[in-house]
């Protein structure tokens, strides 16, 4: 008899007659209440009789035929400079060094990093721009690989947000709220749509350091008030891709199976005793970890990829933890049915020395970003995979710090920035929205963060107003009480 089997017997013996009947009474009361309120529970949770959603997602979700089955979000943490990459503003050249007009700034609040500056001199990009493809999309010399696939992309130049500092801005993009505590977009998708592969998580996170000192917290891919089994699983680049995936020394796979079976029986007893859904979550997560012992090592082994793949993604793809390696891993995850894959690349926060540091960021990411799109298309996956590229906000047209002939910096700018999309359900070869001559204000077709979330969910077959979860007496959703699907971005 194992120690855990003995513990089960001990637990059963410890139950007094009074304890048993108190549990039984509570159980009968709960069952009666569930019967009386069954329809209300179903309406509030989207799940019959208030039970947890299955691995295949909530009943009735997707709400309509999806164009995309999965999504990959290439999140460029720090705020890429839109006017140095995709939002070409030739008029700025003649205005170099002049003061940003008050009529353009319109009293916008500033960060503490530039609020005390005496001047706000306009600074044009140092980089050359050209139009590319039949779509004639503008792109700078910093992103030559992305420029080559311009006809595959949908550029949104009119993105805007509410937060002006990194943490609330990233939190807003990930959860639909600036204050931490709500579920991330990947958790919402895992909750609503479930997983297509029972041997891998529905939501996987990959991180590249990329320089910079802005932190990325685990809560950014957390489940908030949703059950914790919907949170993102972060893959590591050193050691086991997932912590504690390997069996301890002297503890083989058959022993682990026996251990998990006994532990599962103990947890099942506790679940029956307390009715805590997190206990059920714990059981399912232990089982997922056991299955991942076989699925993840094979997934993370890039050695069998042909040379042509490394030629496409670049030599960095051979080094675990690089953005290129993570993009290749994202394709492999997509092939295996992972629902939502999010890559975070840090270091896009160029308050100073922008020409040098932005060029470094682009060298690390441009080829791999384009390669992922090309690779997905070649394998027939792009038509049902939505790919998103962008950061939490843009950068200011005025210089932060000292402006010289060959150097400048830019501060945070929430009023306008550029994001691109491609894949399932999205029109390709278009540019949507426009900014003024200073790339400071949106002047045509604004797209808010909530609108982007609503559009993303729509591509995956979800009505953003109907994917809700009742918490503390209120029905919450990713888009809160906002958001509109941007239909002009979508295929019919």
A few lines on this structure:
By secondary structure, this protein is of the alpha/beta class. 35% of the residues lie in helices and 15% in strands. The strands form five sheets. Strands 1, 4, 5, 6, 7, 8, 11, 12 and 15 form a nine-stranded mixed sheet that branches. The protein has a two-stranded antiparallel ribbon with strand order 2-3. Strands 9-10 form a two-stranded antiparallel ribbon.
List the helices and strands and how they pair.
Layout: H1 3-14, H2 17-36, H3 38-45, E1 70-76, H4 102-105, E2 129-132, E3 137-140, H5 144-148, E4 154-160, H6 166-175, H7 185-193, E5 203-208, E6 233-235, H8 253-274, H9 277-300, H10 307-313, H11 323-335, E7 340-345, H12 354-378, E8 385-390, E9 394-399, E10 410-413, E11 417-423, E12 430-432, E13 434-435, E14 442-444, E15 447-448, H13 449-459, E16 469-471, E17 474-476
Parallel strand pairs: 1-7, 1-8, 4-12, 4-15, 5-6, 5-7
Antiparallel strand pairs: 2-3, 4-11, 8-11, 9-10, 13-14, 16-17
């Amino acid at each position: 008899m194992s120690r855990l089997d003995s513990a089960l017997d001990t637990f059963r013996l410890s139950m007094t007659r009074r304890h048993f009947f108190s549990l039984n009474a509570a159980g009968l009361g709960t069952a009666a209440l569930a019967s009386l309120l069954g329809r209300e529970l179903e309406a509030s949770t989207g799940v019959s009789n208030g039970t947890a959603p299955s691995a295949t997602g909530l009943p009735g979700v997707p709400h309509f035929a999806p164009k995309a089955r999965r999504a990959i979000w290439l999140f460029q943490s720090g705020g890429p400079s839109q006017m140095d990459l995709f939002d070409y503003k030739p008029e700025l050249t003649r205005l170099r060094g002049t003061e940003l007009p008050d009529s353009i700034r319109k009293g916008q609040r500033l960060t503490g990093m530039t609020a005390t500056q005496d001047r706000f001199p306009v600074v044009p990009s140092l980089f050359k721009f050209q139009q590319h493809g039949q779509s004639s999309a503008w792109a700078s010399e910093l992103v030559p690989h992305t420029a080559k696939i311009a006809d595959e992309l949908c550029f949104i130049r009119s993105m805007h947000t509410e937060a002006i500092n990194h943490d609330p801005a990233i939190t807003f993009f990930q959860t639909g709220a600036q204050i931490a505590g709500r579920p991330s977009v990947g958790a919402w998708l895992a909750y609503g749509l479930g997983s297509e592969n029972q041997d891998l998580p529905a939501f996987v996170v990959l991180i590249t350091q990329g320089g910079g000192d802005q932190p990325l917290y685990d809560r950014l891919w957390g489940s908030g008030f949703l059950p914790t089994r919907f949170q993102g699983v972060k893959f590591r680049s050193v050691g086991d891709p997932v912590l504690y995936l390997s069996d301890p020394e002297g503890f083989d796979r058959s022993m682990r199976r026996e251990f998990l079976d006994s532990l599962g029986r103990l947890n099942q007893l506790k679940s029956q005793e307390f009715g805590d859904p997190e206990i059920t979550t714990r059981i399912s997560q232990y089982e997922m970890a056991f299955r991942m012992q076989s699925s993840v090592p094979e997934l993370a082994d890039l050695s069998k990829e042909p040379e042509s793949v490394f030629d496409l993604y670049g030599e960095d793809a051979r080094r675990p933890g690089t953005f290129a390696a993570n993009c290749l891993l994202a394709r492999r995850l997509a092939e295996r049915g992972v629902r939502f894959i999010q890559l975070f690349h840090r270091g896009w926060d160029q308050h100073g020395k922008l020409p040098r540091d932005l060029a470094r960021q682009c060298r690390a990411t441009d080829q791999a970003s384009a390669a992922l799109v090309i690779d997905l298309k070649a394998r027939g996956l792009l038509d049902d995979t939505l790919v998103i590229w962008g950061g939490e906000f843009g950068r200011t047209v005025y210089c932060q710090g000292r402006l010289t002939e060959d150097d400048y910096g830019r501060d945070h700018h929430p009023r306008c920035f550029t994001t691109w999309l491609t894949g399932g359900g999205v029109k390709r070869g278009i540019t949507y929205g426009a900014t003024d001559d200073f790339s400071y204000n949106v002047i045509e077709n604004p797209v808010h963060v909530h609108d982007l979330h609503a559009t993303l969910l729509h591509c995956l077959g979800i009505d953003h107003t109907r994917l809700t979860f009742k918490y503390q007496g209120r029905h919450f959703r990713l888009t809160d009480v906002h958001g509109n699907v941007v239909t002009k971005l979508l295929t019919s």
